[in-house]
Design a protein that fits this description.
The chain is an alpha/beta fold and 478 residues long. Helices cover 39% and strands 22% of the residues. The chain contains 15 helices and 23 strands. The strands form six sheets. It has a seven-stranded mixed β-sheet with strand order 13-16-17-12-11-19-20, with helices on both faces. It has a six-stranded mixed β-sheet with strand order 8-7-6-9-10-22, sandwiched between helices.
Length: 478
């Protein structure tokens, strides 16, 4: 069995070993070394020393060259990385290949950010006190970045967290999900082979929650990047050291509206992908679909029929469309929530049962109670709820009536309807005739309310991980 050593700048022996398993067949994939507080202190000390010595900062041209070499190697290892994503995370291979391509594009975006990096002139001569003075700004790295990542996009999420940090000139320590650390370790290894010194990118799989908390809450951390559950994210934010900036990306219970004027075929096709991509384990997965009463019967019939035909199984097989859930406990939890909705009077028109130990059938629930967990909380599984509406204002009110808000979708061919829903839906992005999980890697990506803090997307994160520094020069020659 392959073993992955600690990627931290420390001579301390590993604290232990974590066995990474395939979530579909539960076979062991590899062993990964774990670290404790000794390694946290070593990693933070090394990263802080790099940042504090400005003579050691990596020049922009050197960073660009490193990213170029990384892109070349990731491109050469496309299939290997896609197979790693599928085997450790359970994402179907066809989707895993797309994730690798997105990661490559994300790395290219980091170079774009560096090439377009500019300061600005501050117009201080608009007041008498500003006469004979020139002011301009430039950008500097904010400091040591700590990134805690999630399992569902084990390569591309890492690119979104460490890529902007390295591009901005920040030393970064990343803690990947313990379910899917291999993609992160491989990418970090590629960066090191491309010439990035170890202290600038360290990977620490922590042996326990207290060790992870020790890493995140250190006063030496300038910026904390978190992708994961709202419960954990907001808790960690409350414990950050004074002065630590942060960005939090949690989940939502994404709504989609299918209006009277919508193209039914298009809506069914797009929303199938939005609901069941990666078995629904995406923070902006389509979970609640509100369909106008004139379309509802036809939509439910066609959507349920298409969902039944999705192939569920081994993510390594080319034809698999829906893979396993990440853990056995998640399969049981999803089944419990579905049965709760069924007992509450909802109709399950498709799915509603486990497939083996590790998979769950794509499930369609019609008219669950608004108080059911499938209506109120993020399922993070292959489950979608459908509600009929008559008045679009009522549908929007129900869609908005949660403590979370992220991305939403509207299927309509009526421009007045589109503008109305765009204005009134609570979401940071409204997709028109596209599913809720649509994203490109340069887009702003922001959870509202309990769904997160700050704006993701590589150019936005790159900006967050820098400070704008100003110089004011006084001279009678100005």
């Amino acid at each position: 069995m392959d073993e992955f050593a600690l990627l931290v700048d420390s001579s301390e022996p590993e604290a232990g070993w974590l066995t990474v398993s395939n979530p579909f067949d539960l076979t062991s994939i590899c062993k990964v070394a774990t670290g404790d507080s000794r390694h946290v202190d070593g990693a933070l000390g090394s990263a802080s020393a790099c940042f504090d010595n400005k003579e050691q900062w990596l020049p922009v041209d050197q960073r660009i060259a490193i990213f170029g070499r990384v892109i070349h190697q990731v491109s050469k290892r496309r299939e290997e990385l896609a197979l790693t994503i599928a085997s450790e995370g359970g994402k179907p291979l066809s989707d895993a290949r797309i994730e690798v391509e997105r990661a490559i594009d994300g790395l290219k975006l980091c170079i774009d950010c560096l090439r377009s990096e500019t300061g600005s002139l501050a117009p201080i001569n608009t007041v008498e006190a500003g006469r004979e003075r020139l002011a301009f700004t430039s950008h500097e790295p904010i400091g040591v970045v700590v990134a805690v990542s999630a399992f569902n996009h084990p390569l591309n999420l890492i690119v979104h967290q460490i890529g902007p940090a390295i591009a901005a000139g920040c030393p970064v320590i990343v803690k990947p999900s313990e379910d899917t650390p291999v993609s992160c370790l491989k990418l970090a290894g590629i960066f090191h082979q491309a010439g990035l010194p170890m202290p600038w990118l360290q990977v620490l799989v922590t042996e326990s929650i207290p060790v992870a908390e020790h890493l995140v809450t250190s006063a030496r951390v300038a910026f904390f990047s978190f992708i994961g559950s709202a419960r954990v994210g907001w808790l960690l934010r409350s414990k950050l050291a004074q002065g630590t900036r942060c960005a939090l990306e949690h989940g939502g219970v994404a709504p989609a509206l299918v209006t009277e004027s919508a193209d039914l075929e298009l809506a069914v096709s797009k929303l199938l992908k939005g609901a069941f991509y990666h078995a629904g384990q995406v923070c902006v997965s389509t979970q609640r679909i509100f369909v106008h009463k004139s379309q509802s019967k036809a939509f439910i019939k066609k959507f349920s029929l298409e969902a039944k035909q999705l192939k569920v199984g081994n993510p390594a097989e080319e034809t698999t469309e829906v893979g396993p859930l990440i853990r056995l406990a998640e399969v049981n939890r999803v089944d419990e929530w579905v049965n709760e909705a069924r007992k509450g009077g909802a109709t399950v028109t498709c799915g509603g049962q486990k497939i083996g130990q590790t998979c769950y059938a794509p499930t369609v629930i019609v008219e669950p109670s608004v108080s059911a967990r499938v209506s109120q909380q993020e399922v993070f599984g292959p489950v979608v709820c459908i509600y009929e509406y008559d008045d679009i204002g009522d549908a929007i009110a129900q869609a908005n009536d949660l403590s979370v808000a992220f991305q939403a979708a509207v299927f309509s061919n009526d421009h007045q309807e589109i503008l109305f829903t765009y204005r009134h839906l609570n979401a940071s992005a409204i997709m028109i005739n596209e599913h809720t999980a649509f994203r490109t890697d340069n887009m702003p990506f922001a959870g509202l309310k309990a769904s997160g803090l700050g704006v993701g997307g590589i150019p936005h994160t790159f900006k967050d991980m820098q400070i704008e520094k100003m110089m004011v020069m006084h001279s009678p020659k100005f």
